[in-house]
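Predict fold of Putative HNH nuclease YajD; 333 aa.
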Amino acid sequence: MTTNMPWTLALALAAAGVYLILGPVPDELILDRSIPLATEPWRAFSAHLAHSDPSHLILDVAGLLLVGWLYEPALRGRMTALLLLGMPSILGAVMLLEPRVVAYCGLSGIVNLIVGAGLAAAWRAEPRDPLPILFALAVAAKILLESLTGQAVFSDTVWTPVHSAHAAGFLIGVMFETARTTKIGGIANPQGDTSMTSSSGPRHAKTGKPIDSAKLDRVVADARKASDERAAGYREQALKLYDWVCGRCARTFTRENLRELTVHHKDMNHDNNPPDGSNWELLCVYCHDNEHQKYEEHLAALAGGRVAKPGVAGKQTTHNPFEGLADLLKKDS
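Predicted 3D structure, encoded as tokens:
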């Protein structure tokens, strides 16, 4: 547990320690509008660790542990940057958006910060999963309801809840994660995949060195592009050389369904493309698939020794169970 959510546990223990040692609303730690942050900058961080009463502390710590357990493993090393950026930004938003608030304390802004970043990370990892979007909408609805009613949904504390801190934390977390772009080997990586530089990323089986996954992806993409371009070139040539008829089922094609007519390489070598088209034949997609299926079955039979390889004579059968049958029939007659 400690390895998966170190920041969450550290913040929870720090908040509990502050309350046990200094009590509720310690003047030297909370955000106080009368004291400029430029003169006491630690308050941009310490205000999140102070709480107004036991209920405030318990609810904030419980919420922090829950969201940390859910999302800190997904955020991994980015938690440090998220907190360093998010904690003062939340207080800055409170000071800017709510001029009537004279003081602020509590972990609720950080809880929403982690929720926003965690949901964005989950969505980036699996864009087709609707759960992160639905959960984000639910959180946004909760914040909107609190802002309209002036009451916290899940808590009842001595101090009036500061809903702008919740909204700012959530939005900052979402923006931090969605705008994140890392560069690996000089290549922009919008998904932020650091597996190739991480100790837990894929490694070469023999050397043990990290595998540059981005380079591999780039090579594969280039190879596919070259293959597609090459295929488009010889297909155009084949369509000019041959009638638009499948060489197996004799199905005739027109421009409306020409996409279903493919070029088959007779020797199964897609790099063998003579200009005269002698290695090509036009087949419909079904007959083309059938040809490749037969070829794969032939290779499997060769591997299993069920057929003789080309140029290798198979074993000849010399025993004939009907040998001498003609002589026996002559004797009987």
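The chain has ten helices and six strands.
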